Amino acid sequence: MKAEYRNAIRSKTLIREALVKLLNSQKDISSITVSDIVKVANINRGTFYNHYNNIMDVVEEIENNLFEELLKLLKKHSPLADVSDFLYSLVEYFKQQEKNYKPIVKGLSKTVLDNLILKFITQVKEIMPNVDEIMILFIINGLTGLYFDYLEGKIEMSLDDLCKQCIGYINNIIASKTKEKK
To answer: Is residue 112 a contact partner of residue 19, using CB atoms and an 8 Å limit?
Structure first.
């Protein structure tokens, strides 16, 4: 893959940041226009169209960046071998990115978020083909739902406390599955 020029990287970063700012101030993505983005990013319309065809292309790039980061964490830690390390790594990543993801989760449609989850589940199944599929679905959908609820302000606890509770629940699920097999 060809390396991007610094100006292209800068422009794309400005566009993504502008979208996040707009999502933070408006209810959802359907009310945001390219004109809004270029105004907030302080770039011209042509610059936007040099990099993206439409706003959903920007959303897709944000989604792909998140997916890449989650995949790195997944490959670094075998999540079901050591749930704690994997979840603590996720929590640290999400703490660093919370200001970016909070408006995105609030502003994007459930379909976009569901597609990201499905993509991640597919990847987990490829990396760990011998793990029970229902358990993978249960854990990932549960963790994702809880994290989205946290970002939307529906959960009144710290991300660290939520992580500790989730680790306990997941360890219990894994322990009971292990007992079933014996």
So the answer is: no
